C-alpha cells in the first residue's frame, strides 16, 4: 500500500495549514487542488508543490484521488461534499457539516449507501491536548462529570478580518462559526445532547470593516452576535456556554468540566494542545484554614500539529476498518444542536434535539502522524 491520494477543493486562507500539514504526513499525498479562481488554485499548487490544479470538477475527476477535502464556504459545504460522494470519493469537510439538517442528512445517507466515509471538522479533537484531557476524565480524575462551562468572547472578527461580513451573515455568527469547536468537545466528553435553551442579542445592526482595502464600509449583522446556551445531555450532565462577538474582554478557549470528585480545565477546543489541570474538593474547612486550592498539572505530548489530522485519521481508519474520530455523524449531531440553539434563541423556548450520536472514539494509543503506516 502507499499514501492515499487527496484532492482539495477551495484554496482560501484555511487551505495553507491543511496543505502544510498534509505534506508532512507520510500516509497522505495531495495530488490536485481546485478552486473557482483558477489562478488562485495554480498559486497554491505551485506554493506547496502539488502536481496539478484546476476546477472542483477536475478534482472530482482525478483518478488518483480517494479523499476530497472540502474547504469551500459553509453555504456550499453540502453541495460540494455530495458531489464528492457521487464521484466515488470519501470526503472530509470543514465545519460546519452544512447549514441545514435535510441537506446534511442526505449527504450522510448517500455516503452510507455508497460505502464511503464523511469526516467533519473540527479535528482539534484529535490533538494531543484534547486526547490527554479525555483520557484523564475517563480515568476518573474528577469522578462523574456533572456540568461544564465554556466561553468564547471577542470584540469580533471585524477587528482584524478584511472581509468580515460573511461571519455576521446567516449561517455564521459566533454560534455556527465557533460553536462547532466547543460543542464537538462537549459531546465528545459528555455524550449526546438532549435539549437546549438559548438567548441571543446583537450589539448593533451594522458593523464596519476596519482593515484592508474596504476599511470604512458598513455591512449588516444578520444573526445574534452574542448567544448564551444552556445544554442538557442525555446522560444527565449540563453545560452553560457563552459565544460572543461583542465582548471588550478578549477571552478564548475556556472549558471547565466539574465532577463529583474535582474540576478539570482542558485546552482551547480551537487548538491542538494546551493546559490541562485539575483541583480536588477542599474537604472540611475550619477556622484559619486556607481556601486556596492546589492545581495538579497533567502533562501531555506537545507535538507541532494542525488541521489535516482528522483527514489523516480517516485514511488510517478506512485502512484498519475502524471508526474515525471526527465523523460525519458527530458533525451532524453538533449541527443539529447548534440549529436547535438558534431556534431556541429565536422563539424563547427550549428545544429538544432530535438527533443523537454514539460514543466518540479515542485515537489508538501510540498514534503518530509522522510515521508511514499504509
From TrEMBL:
Cite the Gfo/Idh/MocA-like oxidoreductase N-terminal domain residue spans from the record. 5-118
Keywords (A to Z) from UniProt? NAD, Oxidoreductase
Question: Taking every annotated instance into account, which residue ranges of this chain make up the domain GFO/IDH/MocA-like oxidoreductase?
Answer: 130-265
- Alphabetical list of InterPro entries matching this protein: Gfo/Idh/MocA-like_OxRdtase_N (IPR000683), Gfo/Idh/MocA_oxidrdct_glycsds (IPR050463), GFO_IDH_MocA-like_dom (IPR055170), NAD(P)-bd_dom_sf (IPR036291)
A GO molecular-function annotation: 1,5-anhydro-D-fructose reductase (1,5-anhydro-D-mannitol-forming) activity
**Pfam families noted in UniProt:** GFO_IDH_MocA, GFO_IDH_MocA_C3
Q: What is its EC number?
A: 1.1.1.292
Task: Give the matching SUPFAM superfamilies.
Answer: Glyceraldehyde-3-phosphate dehydrogenase-like, C-terminal domain (SSF55347), NAD(P)-binding Rossmann-fold domains (SSF51735)
Write the protein's name.
1,5-anhydro-D-fructose reductase
- Please name the gene that encodes this protein: afr_5
Amino acid at each position: 500500500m502507499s499514501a492515499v491520494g487527496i484532492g482539495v477543493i477551495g484554496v482560501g486562507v484555511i487551505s495553507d495549514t491543511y496543505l502544510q500539514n498534509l505534506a508532512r504526513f507520510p500516509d497522505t499525498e495531495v495530488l490536485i487542488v481546485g478552486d473557482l479562481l483558477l489562478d488562485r488554485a495554480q498559486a497554491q499548487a505551485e506554493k506547496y508543490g502539488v502536481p496539478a490544479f484546476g476546477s472542483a470538477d477536475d478534482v472530482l475527476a482525478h483518478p488518483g484521488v480517494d479523499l476530497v477535502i472540502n474547504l469551500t464556504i459553509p453555504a456550499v459545504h453540502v453541495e460540494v461534499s455530495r458531489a464528492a460522494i457521487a464521484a466515488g470519493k470519501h470526503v472530509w469537510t470543514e465545519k460546519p457539516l452544512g447549514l441545514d439538517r435535510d441537506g446534511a442528512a442526505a449527504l450522510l445517507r448517500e455516503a452510507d449507501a455508497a460505502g464511503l466515509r464523511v469526516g467533519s471538522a473540527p479535528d482539534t479533537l484529535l490533538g494531543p491536548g484534547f486526547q490527554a484531557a479525555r483520557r484523564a476524565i475517563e480515568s476518573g480524575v474528577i469522578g462523574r462529570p456533572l456540568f461544564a462551562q465554556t466561553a468564547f468572547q471577542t470584540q469580533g472578527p471585524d477587528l482584524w478580518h478584511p472581509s468580515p461580513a460573511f461571519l455576521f451573515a446567516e449561517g455564521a455568527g459566533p454560534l455556527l462559526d465557533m460553536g462547532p469547536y466547543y460543542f464537538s468537545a462537549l459531546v465528545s466528553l459528555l455524550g449526546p445532547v438532549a435539549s437546549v435553551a438559548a438567548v441571543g442579542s446583537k450589539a448593533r445592526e451594522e458593523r464596519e470593516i476596519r482593515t484592508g482595502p474596504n476599511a470604512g464600509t458598513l455591512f449588516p449583522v444578520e444573526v445574534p452576535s452574542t448567544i448564551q446556551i444552556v445544554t442538557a445531555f442525555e446522560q444527565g450532565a449540563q453545560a452553560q456556554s457563552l459565544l460572543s462577538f461583542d465582548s471588550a474582554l478578549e477571552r478564548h478557549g475556556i472549558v471547565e468540566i466539574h465532577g463529583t470528585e474535582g474540576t478539570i480545565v482542558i485546552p482551547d477546543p480551537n487548538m491542538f494542545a494546551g493546559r490541562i489541570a485539575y483541583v480536588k474538593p477542599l474537604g472540611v474547612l475550619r477556622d484559619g484554614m486556607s481556601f486556596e486550592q492546589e492545581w495538579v498539572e497533567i502533562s501531555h505530548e506537545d507535538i507541532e500539529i494542525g488541521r489535516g489530522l482528522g483527514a489523516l485519521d480517516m485514511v488510517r481508519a478506512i485502512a484498519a476498518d475502524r471508526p474515525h474520530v471526527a465523523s460525519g455523524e458527530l458533525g451532524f449531531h453538533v449541527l443539529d444542536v447548534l440549529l436547535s440553539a438558534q431556534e431556541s434563541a429565536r422563539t424563547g423556548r427550549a428545544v429538544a434535539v432530535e438527533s443523537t450520536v454514539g460514543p466518540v472514539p479515542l485515537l489508538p494509543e501510540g498514534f503518530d502522524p509522522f510515521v508511514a503506516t499504509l
